[in-house]
Amino acid sequence: MSKKILFVLSEYGYWGDEGVGPMEVLDDAGYEINFMTPTGKKPPPLPPSMEPGFWDPPLDKVVTDEYYANRTRELDQSDRLDNPIDLSSWFPQRPYFNHANFGHDLEAYHNKRAQCWEQLEEYDALLMAGGSGPMIDMVNNQRLHDVILGFYQHDKLIAAECYAVTCLAFARDFVDRECIIRGKHVTGHALEYDWLDLTGVVGIDVNFKTAFYPLEHILRDAVAPGGKYHGGVGKSISTILDYPFLTGRSTQDSRLVGELMVEVLEIDLRKYGWK
Questions:
Q1: Interhelix angle 142-153/102-119, nearest 10 degrees
Q2: Pairing state of beta strands 32-37 and 85-86?
């Protein structure tokens, strides 16, 4: 049977390679991909990821080649992303603690979430693309945290790229609040590669300068004790599989993330990129 993937993209801009790279691999494998965004709007690619020859200052090299720039533009101009699943109308919002009916509302929330978790059983894996957009509408999105926890409860593959890896650090049960990547091996955007200027998103005309947070520091704290953050600084690729988590550092890892997803789902690969 064909595998089915739930692919989450930001409404404030995903990096083109990180959408197209794994998507092409999964398409070639014959998998079905269902796209989802936080409120059901079409996800836009970040403009630099459609600009051939775009130069990344921290890496001091071109990070957007002509192939991925063109493929990202083609995807954006197609109708494939026009009607993504609306996360906000699918998963419930957890009630405020100080609401008058908190006890009953919390029970209703848990019941609804359990129903949603049952619906996740039709999917074989979760994939979240990175870029600067996820820092706005994915990283601290409680509904997305619950999607991640649902896949985690079902012991299914959870893949994240670049800044979307932060979602794994913050996806925690409301009661015990323990980090699900504690003791695991992960990668993510290294401190050495963080921008110092011109970090932008789609739909907000603001130069946020650098990233909103140093992802490396968050991940180092999240996996301790017993786990390890792998930055891969000085290496072209940094992709880590410590099942059920598959993490890719940045744009160069995107296609490999897709390839490893296929290996996990086809031959039950459980570990890659660390000893």
A1: 50
A2: parallel
List the 85-86 sheet strands across, edge first.
85-86, 32-37, 4-8, 125-128, 157-161, 245-248, 239-242, 271-272
Q: Return the DSSP state at 4.
A: E
| Among the listed residues 252, 258, 257, the one whose alpha carbon sits nearest the alpha carbon of residue 63 | 252
CB 49 within 8 A of CB 16: yes
Beta strand 54-56 pairing with 61-64: antiparallel
And the tokens for 140? Answer: 């601290």
Q: How many residues does the chain have?
A: 275
253 CB contacts (<8 Å, ≥6 apart)?
161, 187, 237, 238, 239
Averaged pLDDT for residues 94-112? 96
What digits encode the pLDDT tens for the residues 23-56? 999 999 999 999 999 999 999 999 999 999 999 9
pTM of this structure:
0.97
DSSP three-state, residue 201: strand
| Cα–Cα distance for residue pair 90/147, rounded to 1 Å | 10
Cα–Cα distances in angstroms (integers) from residue 21 to residues 16, 25, 120, 231, in the given order:
8, 7, 24, 20
